[in-house]
Specification:
The chain is mainly β. Helix content is about 10%, strand content about 30%. A seven-stranded antiparallel beta sheet has the order 2-1-5-8-9-4-3. It has a three-stranded antiparallel beta sheet with strand order 11-10-12, with no helix packed on it. It is globular. Bound molecules: fe (iii) ion (FE). The site of fe (iii) ion has 9 residues, from loops.
Length: about 230
């Protein structure tokens, strides 16, 4: 049998992987970084070919891994995980420093970082496995705890982008939907606004219709504007 849910028992850490191209920077969320050899220090990361960061890594042959802390806000993860660097500059309003690879290391919500240069590229269909030699690694804040993928899913109720290595397509639970409620879904991250719940974290009371949300209201998961939402059909 293939019990896909059982795959969530594997443990992963949440990271931002960043790279550069022609003076521009981009980064995305991955949960597939692992050290594979201790001597010489070598690690691997799996990245979806659709991601702009994939293109940057392929061309520059260098990348950085910023290891995210448990208390990272979900909107920060949304910025790197659900928005595309083709639409926004992900490093705008983010504290970072340029490492010796020339690639940014994220300083906000980061426990530590690793810099690596590619020594091998393995094509794995939809994804590429980049094998990198570690050039530098450092702890930025040892008071912080690294965020595991399980913590992100279970405690932060984080969602998984379609392009993630661990994405599993789920069918909507129709029994949870009732005809009276008009729910709207974010096209970028699949967050569903439910008017019976509202958005209490952003002072939107239960019973607030989507149409009555302020114009500057944004998706609490990924920061997308209201016009990225569409009606969820019953
Ligand atoms: Fe969203």
């Amino acid at each position: 049998m293939l019990d896909l849910e059982s795959l969530f028992n594997l443990s992963y850490g949440m990271c931002i992987i960043s790279s550069k191209k022609d003076g521009e920077y981009n980064g995305c969320i991955v949960n597939t970084v692992f050290q594979i050899v201790p001597e010489p220090l070598t690690l691997a990361v799996s990245v979806n070919k659709e991601n702009l960061t994939h293109k940057y890594i392929t061309e520059s042959k260098v990348f950085t891994v910023s290891i995210l802390a448990e208390d990272t806000p979900i909107s920060f993860i949304g910025r790197f995980g659900f928005r595309s660097g083709r639409d926004i500059d992900k490093f705008e309003q983010v504290n970072f420093r340029i490492g010796q690879s020339g690639v940014p290391v994220v300083l906000d919500n980061t426990v530590g970082f690793i810099e690596a240069e590619i020594i091998k590229i393995i094509d794995v269909g939809t994804h590429t496995l980049f094998i990198g030699r570690i050039m530098a690694c450092e702890t930025i804040d040892d008071s912080k705890v690294p965020m595991t993928y399980n913590y992100y899913r279970d405690v932060k109720h984080g969602r998984t982008p379609r392009t993630a290595a661990t994405y599993i397509e789920k069918k909507p639970k129709s029994e949870l939907e009732t005809k009276e409620m008009k729910k709207y879904k974010c096209n970028l991250c699949e967050y569903v606004y439910d008017p019976t719940v509202g958005d209490p974290d952003n002072d939107v009371n239960p019973g607030t219709a989507f149409e009555d949300l302020p114009d500057d209201w944004v998706c609490p998961e990924c920061g997308a504007s209201k016009d990225e939402f569409e009606l969820v059909e019953d």
